[in-house]
Amino acid sequence: MQAQSISSHSGNETNSFLELISKIFLVLNLAVYAGFTVAFILFPIPLASAIGYTIHSSAALADFRAMYSGLCFGVGLLVYNGLVKPDFRSSAILLSVASAAGLFFARLYTLFIDGPGNEYIYLSMATEIVSVFLGVWLLKKIGKS
After folding, report:
1. pTM of the full predicted structure?
2. Helices 119-144 and 89-114: crossing angle, nearest 10°?
3. Which residue from 7, 20, 33, 144 could staple onto 72, CB 3.0 to 4.6 Å apart?
4. Structural domain for 80, as ranges
């Protein structure tokens, strides 16, 4: 009987640890998406310039804001939903993994086809790799608990 309670207690600690790591993972993703949302809606021209874009029309500006701010807002909203609603947590982690993997592979493709990037690109790729591996680990662990 005592072995069963020890095992159950250990399982609760594992679940609490996974819940904490999942929440931290989602908070960090939410911070990135919220940061992009705010920064690119308010300061699109200087940020575009910093990564090599030149905006020549209001149509280009609208599209740039939509992709860098609007899309990030939508993804961030879903990530937030996973943070506050445990039933949606796995889906929010999966969205974070899928988006990080998509960003990473698009950057990698560009590096192979068009040549080297800059510090921003390499830093982004590093964070995307960490996000993918941590997110996949979390999804595997959550699926087993």
Report:
1. 0.87
2. 150
3. 33
4. 2-144
